[in-house]
UniProtKB/TrEMBL annotation:
<dbReference type="GO" id="GO:0016020">
    <property type="term" value="C:membrane"/>
</dbReference>
<keyword id="KW-0445">Lipid transport</keyword>
<dbReference type="GO" id="GO:0005829">
    <property type="term" value="C:cytosol"/>
</dbReference>
<dbReference type="GO" id="GO:0032456">
    <property type="term" value="P:endocytic recycling"/>
</dbReference>
<dbReference type="Pfam" id="PF08700">
    <property type="entry name" value="VPS51_Exo84_N"/>
</dbReference>
<dbReference type="InterPro" id="IPR014812">
    <property type="entry name" value="Vps51"/>
</dbReference>
<comment type="function">
    <text>Acts as component of the GARP complex that is involved in retrograde transport from early and late endosomes to the trans-Golgi network (TGN).</text>
</comment>
<dbReference type="GO" id="GO:0048193">
    <property type="term" value="P:Golgi vesicle transport"/>
</dbReference>
<keyword id="KW-0653">Protein transport</keyword>
<dbReference type="GO" id="GO:0015031">
    <property type="term" value="P:protein transport"/>
</dbReference>
<keyword id="KW-0333">Golgi apparatus</keyword>
<dbReference type="GO" id="GO:0007041">
    <property type="term" value="P:lysosomal transport"/>
</dbReference>
<feature type="compositionally biased region" description="Low complexity">
    <location>
        <begin position="647"/>
        <end position="656"/>
    </location>
</feature>
<protein>
    <recommendedName>
        <fullName>Vacuolar protein sorting-associated protein 51 homolog</fullName>
    </recommendedName>
</protein>
<dbReference type="GO" id="GO:0042147">
    <property type="term" value="P:retrograde transport, endosome to Golgi"/>
</dbReference>
<dbReference type="GO" id="GO:1990745">
    <property type="term" value="C:EARP complex"/>
</dbReference>
<comment type="subunit">
    <text>Component of the Golgi-associated retrograde protein (GARP) complex.</text>
</comment>
Amino acid sequence: MAEGVPPMDEKAKRTRDLLASFYSPDASAALGVGGGAGVSPRRIASPDSINSPFFDPEVYMSILVQKLNMEGLLQKHVEMAAEIKNLDTDLQMLVYENYNKFINATETIKRMKNNIVGMETNMEQLLVKITSVQSKSDLVNTSLFEKREHIEKLHRTRNLLRKVQLIYDLPTRLAKCIKVEAYADAVRYFIGAKPIFEAYGDSSFQDCKRASEEAIDLVIKNLQAKIYLDSEPIEARAEAVVLLKQLNFPVGLLHGLPIYTCFSPLVDNLKTKLLEKLEDYLLKFQDEYKDTGVSACNATESSDIGQLPDTVSVGDISKIIRAYLIIFPDSEKRLIELVQKLFNRRYGIIQQRIKERMTPADLLNMMRAIWEDVNVMDEILAEAALPAFSLEAARSIVQQYISTSFSYLLDEITDALGKSQQTQKEVVEECPYQNTLEASKKTIIQGSLDLLLDFRQLLDDNLELLAKLTDLIVDWVQEGFQGFFEKLNEQFLVLCGRGYIANPDSCQVDAVQMDKVQAGLVLVLAQLSVFIEQSAIPTITEEIAASFSGGGTRAYEHGPPFVPGEICRIFHSAGERFLLLYINMRTQKISVLLKKRFITPNWMKHKEPREVHMFVDLLLQELEAVGMEVKQILPQGLVRRHRHSDSLGSTTSSRSNPTREDKLTRTNTQRARSQFLESHLAKLFEQKMEIFTKVQHTQESVLSTIIKFCLKSLQEFVRLQTFNRSGFQQIHLDAEYLKNTLKEFVDDEAAIDFLLKEVVGAAHERCLDPIPLEAPILDRLISIKLSKSKEQSQTSP
């Protein structure tokens, strides 16, 4: 295949070859078979090639039968039938197209033939007319030739007389210019007449030359005097130096002239003063910014933001630089340094105000004002390369603005979460954690969308400086969101007392102490992580895809700047970690209460139980507090309650035992042994129950897990003690009471019953005389406690 021809697929190539073979008189040449001399066509195309002129159907069919099964042959048949049909369609369309072209060509030839008829006659008439016009024009030129020559001669004489008159009027004109101090016009007139003085000044125009030189000497003296006057503007003094140079009075040649002996130091003094004035403008600008920088940041007129102070303007500076360049064209290095210093200071002002937070409109106004001044200065001093310098400065400014905006958003979220701890200590709100969660959600989603709108203003603005940074801005925004959510996760760890995880190499740990962290705040962080994973990231991803697609200036090895899947994975893991941390914190607090309950009394001397112990009330109060926190923050889940059933084989409760009457007649020792054996035998036939399942972000799941952990801790504390009969009966009474009360908190009643049975069973094993309370006494004590709790709940506000 020839170079530059794109490769075709097999079908297109075959169609082209078949059409070429159909229209070509030499089929082998059309198919490209006989292209090379000395190469056998048989070597190029095999007999089984269907596109070859040497195609053998029998060989082709034998090969297909060997290679394909019946299904493959049918499929091949369908493909070939479709290809034949397509080829016929292509041939038919080609015939139609050729026919249409033939008809169009015939009609075009017909129209051309009709248009040509009569054209020769018109051309002959046109030629006759052109010949007649040309002959008459020659007659007119011949008759007016002498008069035209005379007019041209008079015109040349008039121009010469006008120049002579200007030479004679030159002294008078110079005197008028000196009188009105129009020295630039005087110098221009004298320079224009100088060639004539040099040619005819010693003969015809001797007096005019002498008078003009006297007048120009007076002009030179006046220009020199203007240079010496400090009261003259710097631009006028610079103009005087330029006019003196135009009169061919260079500095090096003026030392020998008596009236110009001081001209060289005068020029040097002017150069120094120009530089001092430029530096003075820069110092004024710097001092006024230091004095008015704070008030300028709070300016209500956004149009004034970014302008130079009133006493300094780029127009003044540009005039000074223009004069400096005219007088000293070889001294640009110092000017470039001063101009770059000026704009570097102005860009530094923007960077300083970005730290104090500013709107995108203010940023655009400041950058637009500076860019306009850059264009003005670039016309005067292009060697300073101010556009390239401004592009680098704008790159740094926009990147800083985007980074600072994300930092402020992170601070707002941190403040919203930090206020919850102050609110709990200072003011008692009805739903503090719910308000904190909603405020944090709103701050995250609305703050992110507001940032996207602000950044979009930078892209939508028609500022030429930012148009060159479009791809970079897109990448910076995406990188900013990636880094923002990573830092937000680290901030969550700091707030929950695990800040050392985010910075393990740091010598100083800024993390909050675990005992100072509120458990409710940890649960808020857990639910906030779920919100970020499920709602915030998808919404932000859609907005980025809609408004900030493109970019791609990052290196390939660094990967995409914004990876939503990675952020979702981080916050999914953080949500589970915070949820488990909340459960552990609440469980540890309740475990302290349980530990005090079992360590304080002497269980071997425990008295006969007369009521449910007060620690049960404290335990329920703690669980109610947990329930209030959980209901503020977590949503409700699908309630799936496991009801207690006698089929579980429990024989621990005396009320569910059918042989209770027989046991009452036994001796205490026989009863204890019997119940001990029955409890162990019941475990063999009980249904296997999964107690600790994966925690979900729902109210029921979290409460159930905390209660399960607490009951498991209660079982372990029971195993560490030794009980007498009364102590065992007290544990039995408390467990039976908890069976009824804990059902209000959990969605898995069967698991709670199972764990409470384990607690009673552990107390039974650690008791020296494990005789439970009789059923009537147990029921009566529980009823009394329930009635007291009901009365307290009715009387309490």
